[in-house]
Amino acid sequence: MITHRSAVPLVGVLLAGSAVLTQPAAAAPPAETVGGTGKTGKTAVAEGYGGAVSTVDLDASEAALRVLRRGGNAVDAAVAAAAVLGVTEPYSAGLAGGGFLLYYDARRKKVHTIDGRETAPAAMTAASLEGIPFEEAVTSGLSAGVPGSVAQWELALRRFGTLSLRQALQPAIEVARRGFTVDQTFHDQTAANAARFADFTSTAKLFLPGGAPPKVGSTFRNPELAETYRLLGRYGPRWLYGGRLGEEIVATVKRPPVAPGSTRTVRPGLMELPDLAAYRALERPPTKVSYRGMDVYGMAPPSSGGSTVGEALNILQALPEVGLHEYLEASRLAFADRGKYVGDVPGVPLRQLLSDGFAKERACLVTERAMAHPAPAGEPDGDYGPCPAATPAATAQQAPEGPETTHLVVADRWGNVVAYNITIESTGGNGIVVPGRGFLLNNELTDFTFGPAPGDPNLPGPGKRPRSSMAPTIVLDGGKPVLALGSPGGSTIITTVLQILVNRWELGMSLPEAVAAPRATQRNTAQTQAEQAFIDRHGAELSARGHSLALNPEIGAATAVEFLGGGRLQAVAEPARRGGGSALVLVPAR
Ligand code: GLU
C-alpha cells in the first residue's frame, strides 16, 4: 500500500455540545471510543456499532466520526467530511464543485436526494462548446459551472441535519489551518497537473510552493481556504451566491489569472453574478428498482447514475444466469440507452427505462457471445413485444469523461445513511485557483456533449446541468438499509457500482471482497477496459466469448457500508486503489 496522508490531530473542534439531538438516541456509544484504525494509517474494513464512515481519506473519515461521536447525524458528518475533502483532496472536491447526495431517513423510512450539480451560465447555448478542443476546454474559464456544493451543504443541513453550516465547516477549517501530511497520491496528482498549474499565478502560488509540487511527508497548509470557510460560515451561502466571493469567482472565470509568459490559450467563461444568485440545490425523487427482493435507490437525472445502474440490474434479473459476461453485456446495453435518452432535459423516459418490460426486451439481445459493437439504444416506449433483431447502431456516443471525483458513505446511530458523490470534475478541476481564496474552480461543463449533435439530450444550454455519471446508491430490504455505496471514476462510476452489486449478490462475495475484486468496465465501447488482475483472471474466458479487453490500470475508488443486522455495521474502503481509503466505526466489534 502507498504511504498515506497521516492525520494531523484535530483538536479544538468546536462541535462539543453544539449538536442538537433531534432524534431519540438508541444505544448511544461510549463518548471516546474510536475504532477501526491506528492513528498512523488507514484501514480498509471496520466492523462495529453506533456509526460508520468510509471515505478515501483518514482526515475526512475522522472528522465525520468525530461529528457522529458528539451527537451529530449522518448528514452533519457527511457535510463535515465533504468540507475536509475540499482541503485534503482539493483536486477531486471542494466548495466550488458539485455533487449528488442520497439520504435515507430512518425515522420516515424514506430515501431523499439532493442535486448539487453545477449549472451552465444563462449565456451558454448548445453551440458554446462546439469545435473547441476538449483539452482546451478542460483548462478554461468557459468550463467552470456555477458551483453547487455550498448550496447543497446548506440545504442538506437545513432539511436533515442538526448542525449549522458554520459548525459543519469547523473540522475543515482546523485541517486547513494545521495542515495535512502530503502523501504520494497528493504529490503525484500535483506533479501531473504541474504544467497547467504553473500557467496561473494563483494556482502556482498555492500548489507549487517554491515552483515544485509539495514533497511527500511535508505538511501542506491552506490558511486561505481556512479563512474562506470561516467567512462562508459567518456570512452564509449568500456570500458565494451573489456576494463578494461570488464576484471574485466571476472575475476569475472571466479573466483567469494567466501567468506572465504562459503560452496557453485560456478561454474566458460566461458566468455572471446573477448566474450565482439564481443557483439552487434541488431535492429530487430518487430512482428505484427492485432487485432480488430489495429496493435499489439511485440518483435521477441530471445524473445518469441511477437510471443506468438500475436498468442494468433489471436486465440482469431478466437473464437465466448472471456472471461477468452478463454483467458486461447488461452494462453495454444500459449505456446505449443512457447516451440516447438521459440528460438534463424534460421528458427523460425514466419510468420506461427502469421498467421490467423494457429490461426483458433489452435482455433478449444478450447471447452466449459479446454483442456486435456498438449496441443500439432500445425503444423505451411501453410497447414491448418479442425480441427485436439485434442490429448494431451506426455510431456510439463516446464523450470523454475525466476519471476523478470522490465518494463517501456515513451511517449514524439512528440508522440514517448518506451516500455522497462530490467532484470538481477533472483532477485539479479547471486548474484555476480563485486568487487568495485557496480553492480550485470546477470544469464540470466539459461533461456536456460538445456537439454538433442534433437531438443529443446532453448539449449545453442556459442554466442546464451537465449529465453526470455519479451514482451514490442505497439498497433497502423491507424498508431498512442493507448497503450504501458509490465511487469516483467518470462514467466508470456506474460500472464500478454495478460490478460491486454483482460481486456481492450474484457472485457471492463479501462486501470487502466485492470492493477489492479486480474491475472491468463496458460502456458501449468496442473494447472493455479492465484492470490487469481482471485480465489475468478472466481474460481468456471472456475473450473466448468475443470480448476484447484493454488495460485500464485503475478503475474507481469505492466506499461502502453494509448493515449486517443487529445494529452491526461494516464500513469498507479500497485496500489499494488510489492509495487506499479509510473505513471507521464508532464502536469497534470485538
Ligand atoms: N464529472 C463526473 C460526473 O459527474 C464526475 C467526475 C469524474 O469522476 O470524472 O460524472
UniProtKB/TrEMBL annotation:
SUPFAM superfamilies: N-terminal nucleophile aminohydrolases (Ntn hydrolases) (SSF56235). Keywords: Acyltransferase, Glutathione biosynthesis, Hydrolase, Signal, Transferase, Zymogen. Residues 1-27 form the signal peptide. It holds the Pfam family G_glu_transpept. The keyword Hydrolase applies. Pathway: Sulfur metabolism; glutathione metabolism. Cleaved by autocatalysis into a large and a small subunit. It comes from the Bacteria. The keyword Transport does not apply. Its EC number is 2.3.2.2, 3.4.19.13. It catalyses: glutathione + H2O = L-cysteinylglycine + L-glutamate; an N-terminal (5-L-glutamyl)-[peptide] + an alpha-amino acid = 5-L-glutamyl amino acid + an N-terminal L-alpha-aminoacyl-[peptide]; an S-substituted glutathione + H2O = an S-substituted L-cysteinylglycine + L-glutamate. Residues 388-400 have a biased composition (Low complexity). Residues 374-404 are annotated as: Disordered. This enzyme consists of two polypeptide chains, which are synthesized in precursor form from a single polypeptide. Belongs to the gamma-glutamyltransferase family. This is Glutathione hydrolase proenzyme. It comes from Planomonospora alba.
